[in-house]
C-alpha cells in the first residue's frame, strides 16, 4: 500500500470554512407562523399601521423592530396612512434578544433570541379580516440582532402578501 501524500493545508482550510458556512446558514435564524385567519387582501390594497408592545422591556430594541417592520411594509407597498383605510395591527407578544456582546462572549449560554408578534388585519369597517402569529428565533451564537429583526419583518410581509 502506497503512502498517502500529506493534504494541502489550503484544501483543509477551505473545507473547514465551507463546513462552518453551511452550518451558519442552516442554524442562524428560523421562523414559524401560526395562521388562524388568512388575511383576505385586495390587489394594491394599502393599510394604516399600528404597533404596540406587550412582550418586552427593551424599549430601544423594540423601537428598532417597529422601524424595520414599517420599512418592510412600505417596501412591499402595503402601508399608507389615511383616514378610512383598513389597518394592520402588529402586537409584540414576546421579545428577548441577547446583546451582540453576550452572543459573542457566551453564545447559546446567554439564552435563545426570540420575537413573537401577533398580526391582525382589520377592514375599513373595523371587522377583522386576518389574524396570525409570527415567531422568529435564533438559538445559536451566529447571526445578529438586526438580522433577526429583518427576518421577522420579512416573514410578516410574506404572510400578508401570500394571502
- The CATH topology assignment is Double Stranded RNA Binding Domain
The major beta sheet can be summarized as:
5 strands, mixed
Domains counted in the coordinates: how many? 1
The total count of helices amounts to: 4
Strand percentage lies at 25-35%
Level of helix content? 25-40%
The H/E string reads: HEEHEHEEH
* Uncertain regions spanning at least 5 consecutive residues: 22-27
Query: CATH class, please?
Result: Alpha Beta
CATH architecture name: 2-Layer Sandwich
By helix and strand content, what is the structural category? alpha+beta
Report strand order across the widest sheet.
1-5-4-3-2
User: What separation lies between the terminal Cα atoms?
Assistant: 64 Å
Shape: elongated
Structure overview:
With 163 residues, the chain is α+β, with helices and mostly antiparallel strands. The protein has one domain (29-161): Double Stranded RNA Binding Domain. Helices cover 37% and strands 28% of the residues. It contains four helices and five strands; from the N terminus they run H-E-E-H-E-H-E-E-H. Strands 1-5-4-3-2 form a five-stranded mixed sheet, with helices on one face. The longest helix has 19 residues, at 9-27. It starts with 8 loop residues before the first helix and ends with a helix.
Amino acid at each position: 500500500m502506497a503512502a498517502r501524500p500529506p493534504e494541502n493545508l489550503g484544501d483543509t482550510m477551505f473545507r473547514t470554512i465551507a463546513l462552518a458556512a453551511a452550518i451558519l446558514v442552516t442554524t442562524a435564524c428560523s421562523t414559524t407562523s401560526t395562521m388562524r385567519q388568512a388575511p383576505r387582501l385586495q390587489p394594491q390594497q394599502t393599510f394604516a399601521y399600528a404597533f404596540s408592545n406587550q412582550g418586552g422591556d427593551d424599549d430601544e430594541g423594540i423601537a428598532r423592530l417597529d422601524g424595520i417592520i414599517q420599512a418592510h411594509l412600505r417596501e412591499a407597498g402595503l402601508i399608507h396612512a389615511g383616514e378610512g383605510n383598513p389597518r394592520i395591527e402588529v402586537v409584540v407578544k414576546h421579545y428577548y434578544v441577547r446583546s451582540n456582546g453576550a452572543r459573542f462572549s457566551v453564545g447559546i449560554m446567554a439564552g435563545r433570541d426570540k420575537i413573537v408578534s401577533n398580526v391582525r388585519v382589520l377592514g375599513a369597517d373595523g371587522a377583522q379580516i386576518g389574524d396570525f402569529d409570527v415567531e422568529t428565533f435564533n438559538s445559536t451564537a451566529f447571526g445578529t440582532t438586526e438580522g433577526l429583526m429583518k427576518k421577522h419583518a420579512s416573514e410578516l410581509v410574506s404572510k400578508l402578501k401570500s394571502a
